[in-house]
Amino acid sequence: MATTSPVTEASPPSSRTITDAIESELAAHEVITVLADASRLPEWAPGFADQVDGSASVGWQVTKNGRSFPLRVLVDAAAGTVDYLREIAPGRLGGAYLRSVPRPGGGSVIAMTMPVLPEVGATDSRAVLHSELAGLGRLLFRLHDEGSKA
After folding, report:
1. CATH value at residue 131
2. Is 38 exposed, middle or buried (0-12, 13-18, 19+ CB in 10 A)?
3. Is residue 88 one of the residues assigned to a domain?
4. Is 47 exposed, middle or buried (0-12, 13-18, 19+ CB in 10 A)?
5. What is the C-alpha separation between 35 and 57, in angstroms, rounded?
6. 97-139 confidence digits (pLDDT tens)
7. Model's pTM, two decimal places?
8. Pick from 131, 123, 134, 140: which is nearest to 18 by CA?
């Protein structure tokens, strides 16, 4: 007679990142154009940036709650990616990673991955991610609406 040992479920590893996605009527390349312009961050991610100065050619400087930090924006339009990176520890970059891909039937799907913020935990980090994606969705909707009226 064979015996079986009880199966125990392992605890899931603690998540270090969170990811979510939204859909837009704008084409994927149009979304990348919006995301590549870091000066628009306060419009859709006010929890991250109160103000953004600079340009793609000279670099970006973000101000949040009176504190300023440099932001690297890495854009690969052909791949549909925009990464917002800042120094999170000496010599370590981290941040938000966005992908815009064509949606079947038109428009795009925009996915965003960001680290779990250690100071607030996974639940509050997810709330931040949802808030930023909702803000981005509102901006993209407005831009699509303005474009369709032109």
Report:
1. 3.30.530.20
2. buried
3. yes
4. middle
5. 15
6. 999 999 999 999 999 999 988 788 889 999 999 999 999 999 9
7. 0.85
8. 123
